[in-house]
Amino acid sequence: MAITHNLGFPRIGAKRELKFALEAYWKGQSSLDALTQVGKDLRQRHWAQQSALDFAPVGDFSFYDQVLDMSFTLGHLPARVKDFHGDALDNYFRVARGRSSAAAEAHAACCGGVAAGEMTKWFDTNYHYIVPEFTATTQFTLDASRLLEQLAEAQLQGVQAKPVIIGPVTYLAIGKAKDGSNKLALLPALLQVYTALLETLAAQGVSWVQVDEPMLVTELDAEWQHAFNLAYHQLKSSRVKLMVATYFGQLADNQYLAANLPVAGLHVDAINARQEVLPLLAMLPAHKVLSLGVINGRNIWKTDLTATLDWLEPIAERLGDRLWLAPSCSLLHVPVDLQSEVALDSEVKSWLAFATQKLEELQTLALAVNQGRDAVKAALATNLAAMVARRGSQRVHNPAVKAALQTCTPVLGQRQQPYAVRSAKQAALLKLPKYPTTTIGSFPQTAAIRQARSQFKAGTLNLATYESAMRAEIDRCVREQESLGLDVLVHGEAERNDMVEYFGEQLEGYAFSQYGWVQSYGSRCVKPPILFGDIRRPQAMTVAWTNYAQSRTTKPMKGMLTGPVTILNWSFVRDDQPRSVSCYQLALAIREEVLDLEKAGIQIIQIDEAALREGLPLRQSAWKDYLQWAVASFRIAANGVQDTTQIHTHMCYSEFNDIIAAIADMDADVITIETARSDMELLDAFEHFNYPNDIGPGVYDIHSPNIPTQQHMVQLMQKAAERIPAERLWVNPDCGLKTRQWEEVLPALRNMVAAAHALRAA
Ligand SMILES: Nc1nc2c(c(=O)[nH]1)N[C@@H](CNc1ccc(C(=O)N[C@@H](CCC(=O)N[C@@H](CCC(=O)N[C@@H](CCC(=O)O)C(=O)O)C(=O)O)C(=O)O)cc1)CN2
Ligand SMILES: [Zn+2]
C-alpha cells in the first residue's frame, strides 16, 4: 500500500485572507485576536482540504515566514531583539519587518524601533525568507509552543499529523555568519535543541516528522557532507521517525549520502530527478521508506497521470509498503484552487492544476497504485484527454513564431559599434551632466491607483476613465521629477499591476489568472502569468504610455521594459519545451517593443533583468549553459537599436562576483544595481573585472522606510568613485519605489539630487 502525504500547503488563503488580515492588523485596524483567528480558520480549512491524505503537514502555516518560525522554535533571534517584551506575535513581526503594528506602538521607546531581518531568496524560487543570523556565541533554546499548538489543533480535527521542520544542516547553511565565524561549529549545540524538539513531538504521539533538507540538492563540500552524517547520527535515537525531505533538484553526488542517512524515510524530487530514482532504489537500505515527489510543486500543469503510472508501477511493485507518494515540494509555490478561476479560458483551464487539484491527482495516482488503474479509470481517461488536447492545440503552436526563431542568430544581439563609440554619440545627443540622476522605474503604487485598476477590471470603471486616471498619475510623476531636478525621467509604472504580469497580459501565448496568487514575502504576493504557448506580440505594449509621458517633459523619458529572462523566471512556464526556447521567443517580442520605442523617438530604454541572477541553477555545473542562453536572450531583446539609443538594464540582487563576465557580455550602456546596503562592496566585482560600461550603484535603500541623508549618499558615491571612474557613474536608488509612500520618496530623492549636485561641485 502506497501512503500519500503532502510537504506543505499554501497558507495565504484562496482569496488572500491571510494577507488582508495581516495588513489590517499592522495598520491597527484589527485586533490580535482577529488575526490569530484567521490563522486558525485557514489551518482548519487547509487540513480539511487535505483530509484524503494519509498524512497532512502541520507547522507549514506561518504568519510571515517558515524560516523565521524555525528561528523562534530554536530560540535563535538576533541579539538586537532579545530584550523585547510584550506579545510574542508582535515580537515576531518586529523581527520580520522592523516594527510590529500600530497597536504595539506603546513599546516604541523600549523595544519598538529595530532593523528588519535581512531577506533573501529561498533556493531558486521567488519566495523570500528571513535570514538566520549567526555569530560564534550564538545559543539555542527550544520553544516548541507554536508547533505544539498547531499540532493540538490538528489532532483535535482528527488529522493524521506530520509536523514539518527545517532540518539542522539546511538551517545552518541558509543563515549568515555575521562575524565571519564558522557556522558549523554551532552544529552540536543546535542538535541538542533538535533532539529535545523531536522528543517533545514524540511525547505528543507524533509518529513521523518531516525534516526539510533541500541543501542536499546543492553542491556540498566534504565538511557539509560530514555535517549531514553527524546530524542524523545524533538524531537517530529519537522516538519519532524522520522523513528527510529533499526537493528542487537532483541529489547527484549527494545521492549515496542521502540514501544512507540513518533515518526512516527519504523524500526525493521525482520531477527534477526522475532518472535518479532507479539507482536510488538499489542504494536504499531495505528498511527505508522512499517518498517520491511525483506531482510538480513548482508549476501549474496537470500531471500526465498515465505516463507517471507507466513509470511508477514497477517501482511500486518493488517498494510495496515502503512507497510514499507526494508532490515534489511544498505547494507553497503554486496558487490554491483552480476552481476560483471563472474567467480563465476554458481550453487552457482544462490543462491546469493548482494546489487543490494537485492533491486530487496524488489521490488518483495512489488509488491506481493500490487498487489498479481500473479503480480510477474515468479520472485517467479525462486526464489523458487533456494531455492529448494540450499537445496538439493550435493555441500552443504558432508556426510563424517557430519560423522566426529559426532566423534568430547571435547577430541579432550585436550592437552596431562598441560601447566607447556609442557612448560618445549618446553623450553628444543627451548632454547629461556628470553623475546623472535617475530612478529605477516605479513610483508609489498608491491605494487610489490599485483601486482604480480593481474597479476597471471589475467593469465598474470604463476604459477611458481608467486611462485618464493613469495619465493623471503620469502627470504627477513627471511634475514631481521635474521639480526634484532629476536628469532622466520615468513615467512611474502606475498602469502596471506587476512588472511581469503586465507584459504577460499583453502577449499572445500567455494566460493569466484572477486568484492565482503566490506568496513572495510576508503579506506580499505575486500572480505569475501562465506561459502556455508560442509567444507573439500582437501590438505595441508600452509605446502609448511612454509617448504620453515624453510629451509632458523636455527631459529624456526612459522607456521601461521587463527583459525576457525576468519575464521567464517569474512566470509559470511551459514544460513541453526547454526554458531557453521560451526565453528566445520572449526576447524576440521584447526586441520588437524596443524597436518601436526607438522609432517613437525614445532615446533611453531600460530593460529590467531583476531575476537574471536569481535564476542561476542551484548547481554551479549548470550555470554556463543558463548564462549562455540568458545573456543571448537579453542581447537579442536589447541590441537591435542604433548607436544613439542608450540601453539601460537593472538588477536587484547584485552579488555578481562569479557572473560578472556574463553581466559585461550583456553590453548594456548603463546598468543600475542594488548596492546601498553593502556599502558599495558589491562594486568590487565590477572594479576587478574592469567592467567597461556605465554603472548606477544604488545609493538609496528603498526596502527601508528610512530617508537617506545627502551626506550618506555622497559618501556612498565617493566610495563608488574609488572603484569606478566617476565619468561612468550614475546616481539612483537601489530599485523601484512602488512599495514606498510619496511622503518617503520625495525627501529621499531631494537628498539624492542634492548629493549629485554636491559631487559635481567637488
Ligand atoms: N513578479 C514579481 N516578482 C518579484 C518582484 C516583482 O516586482 N514582481 N519583486 C521582488 C519581490 N517584491 C515584491 C514587491 C511588492 C509586491 C506587491 O506589492 N504585491 C502586491 C500585489 C501587486 C499586484 O498585482 N497588484 C494588483 C492589485 C491586486 C489587488 O490586491 N487589488 C485589490 C484592490 C486594491 C487594493 O486594495 O490593494 C483587490 O482587487 O482586492 C494591481 O495593482 O492591479 C501585493 O501583494 O499586494 C510583490 C513582490 C522579487 N520578485
Ligand atoms: Zn530592482
Automatic annotation (TrEMBL):
Co-factor binding details: Binds 2 Zn(2+) ions per subunit. Binds 1 zinc ion per subunit.
Reaction(s) catalysed by this chain's protein: 5-methyltetrahydropteroyltri-L-glutamate + L-homocysteine = tetrahydropteroyltri-L-glutamate + L-methionine
Single Gene Ontology MF annotation: 5-methyltetrahydropteroyltriglutamate-homocysteine S-methyltransferase activity
Biological process per Gene Ontology, one example term: methionine biosynthetic process
Cobalamin-independent methionine synthase MetE C-terminal/archaeal domain location: 436-757
Active site: H703
InterPro entries in UniProt: Cbl-indep_Met_Synth_N (IPR013215), Cobalamin-indep_Met_synthase (IPR006276), Met_Synth_C/arc (IPR002629), UROD/MetE-like_sf (IPR038071)
Transmembrane feature ranges: none
Residue ranges of every copy of the Cobalamin-independent methionine synthase MetE N-terminal domain listed in the record: 4-318
Signal peptide stretch: none
Annotated binding of Zn(2+) 1, by residue: H650, C652, D665, E674, C735
SUPFAM superfamilies, per database record: UROD/MetE-like
Enzyme nomenclature, EC number: 2.1.1.14
Binding site for Zn(2+): H650, C652, E674, C735
Binding site for 5-methyltetrahydropteroyltri-L-glutamate: R16, E17, L18, K19, K121, N126, R524, C525, W570, E614
Pathway where it operates: Amino-acid biosynthesis; L-methionine biosynthesis via de novo pathway; L-methionine from L-homocysteine (MetE route): step 1/1
Binding site for L-methionine: I440, G441, S442, E493, D608
Residue sites binding L-homocysteine per the record: I440, G441, S442, E493, D608
Cofactor field: Zn(2+)
Keywords: Amino-acid biosynthesis, Metal-binding, Methionine biosynthesis, Methyltransferase, Repeat, Transferase, Zinc
Superkingdom to which the source organism belongs: Bacteria
Keyword Cell inner membrane set for record: no
PANTHER family: 5-METHYLTETRAHYDROPTEROYLTRIGLUTAMATE--HOMOCYSTEINE METHYLTRANSFERASE
Record family assignment: Belongs to the vitamin-B12 independent methionine synthase family.
Described function: Catalyzes the transfer of a methyl group from 5-methyltetrahydrofolate to homocysteine resulting in methionine formation.
Designated name of the protein: 5-methyltetrahydropteroyltriglutamate--homocysteine methyltransferase
Organism encoding this protein: Methylophilus medardicus
